[in-house]
Write the structure tokens for this entry.
Amino acid sequence: MSQPTAVDSRLPSLRILPVNSAAQSKGSIHDDDKAREMGYKGGLVPGVTVLGYMSRLMQETFSDRWQTGSTFNGRLRRPVYEGAEVTVEGVVVEAPSAANENTVTVDLKVVDPDGIVAAFAQATCRV
């Protein structure tokens, strides 16, 4: 896969069908019954999983370069539910240069089925 490095370049988006790997955590926000009791539609996909979806986009785009000397800073905004397909998107916001040690900076987001940003992050990667 080519590595987009120019400002405003979009990374190829990913479509992911989320999996709630913590659904068996009875009495937690990941448990369908407890989450519904708290006013959610069902058990929430763990946040670390949702953030990992953005990391996966960086890995698929930048390959081994993503694994060394990279940074990632992400935040969750809304619940993500198992089976509700999300889209992971990224756009380059800072191009490589000698001043930034040939590092690309990417803004990332996870968009839920309603088109609302569920999580966002900024990541850097040497290219």
User: Anything to note?
Assistant: Residues 88 and 110 are 5 Å apart (CA to CA). The first strand starts at residue 14 and ends at 16. Residues 47-62 form the longest helix (16 residues). The chain has one domain: 14-126.
